[in-house]
From TrEMBL:
Provenance organism: Bacillus salipaludis
One Pfam match: Hydrolase_3
Family matches, as NCBIfam families: Cof-subfamily (TIGR00099), HAD-SF-IIB (TIGR01484)
Domain of life: Bacteria
Protein name: HAD family hydrolase
């Protein structure tokens, strides 16, 4: 490729993660090769840091992680940056979610995601079989796993540091109605909303997104956006893709993502699209 990046940021869901929520060995191996050649490789994901280990192969390593859509950044065990939702916002949003019977997961830093016990019945009911046709299998499997073993059902909210809210609904009408409620609430308490599927929405601190997280990580390593390539597939990737010099959309991305990208992979996330793309574009240094 004419553009030779010094750093690469990779989204997870729909990008390096297939629809069974796994990163392939080949993707791990191509990342290892690039890093051995002196190229910095990072993950930039909407997922919380604690979710990542179970999704990647043994020995998976990158130079850093931007997590929760830019809310936190990690290099090894070092916390490079961290933003937190306010306790006031958390309590207000949970009360409104309960009124609208919206499935939610709150992600405190350092402990399991939380849903209050008083909301357990309607939250579990949203994940009843059969899977709605328009819900992606990866998102459905993640919710099944969360209900089964991921969520800590609590009597009350504990702690004061929270990386994000994740909301889900089985119908687009329900989640769109909830997004409208959040837009109204934003007039009272400022925050950022991010969407990665037609059935979800996430809430982070105001003016935080993947682009702000990528910038903070680049600063940590003395790198710049002009030296950076990023690969993604969804709306929550748009700030990151617009920020970097060279934006790549996955073949499985919607057209609105492909339209702003400089390139599109030849294969989907289920076909090891990132592996084949990086292998092709960096052929000269890999051989």
């Amino acid at each position: 490729m004419e553009f030779e990046p010094k750093s690469i940021f990779l989204d997870m869901d729909g990008t390096i993660l297939n629809h069974q929520n796994k990163v392939s060995i080949r993707t791990k191996e191509i990342i290892d090769v690039l890093r051995n050649q002196g190229i910095f490789v990072f993950v930039a994901t909407g997922r919380a840091f604690g979710e990542i280990e179970e999704l990647v192969p043994s020995g998976f390593q990158v130079d850093g992680f931007v997590t929760s859509n830019g809310m936190a950044g990690y290099v090894g065990d070092e916390v490079v940056f961290k933003h937190s939702l306010s306790r006031e916002l958390v309590e207000t949003v949970i009360k409104k979610a309960r009124e609208h019977k919206v499935y939610y997961e709150l992600f405190p830093y350092g402990t399991a995601r939380t849903t209050l016990k008083q909301d357990q019945e309607y939250v579990e009911a949203e994940i009843r079989d059969p899977k709605p046709e328009s819900v992606g299998i990866n998102e459905w499997l993640s919710r099944k796993q969360a209900i089964k073993e991921g969520i800590a059902w609590k009597e009350q909210i504990e702690g004061n540091e929270f990386s994000k809210f994740y909301f889900f609904a089985r119908t687009k009408e329900h989640i769109n109605s909830w997004k409208n409620e959040l837009e109204q609430l934003k007039k009272e308490i400022d925050f950022t909303m991010s969407v990665s599927s037609e059935h979800n929405v996430e809430v982070m601190v105001a003016n935080v997104n993947k682009a702000t997280g990528v910038q903070q990580m680049l600063n940590r390593f003395g790198l710049s956006e002009s030296e950076t390539l990023a690969i993604g597939d969804s709306d929550n990737d748009l700030p990151m893709l617009r920020l970097v010099n060279y934006a790549v959309a996955m073949k499985n991305a919607p057209d609105r993502i492909k339209e702003i990208a400089d390139d599109v992979t030849d294969f989907t996330c289920d076909e090891d699209g990132v592996y084949y793309y990086l292998k092709s574009k960096f052929r000269e240094i890999i051989l």
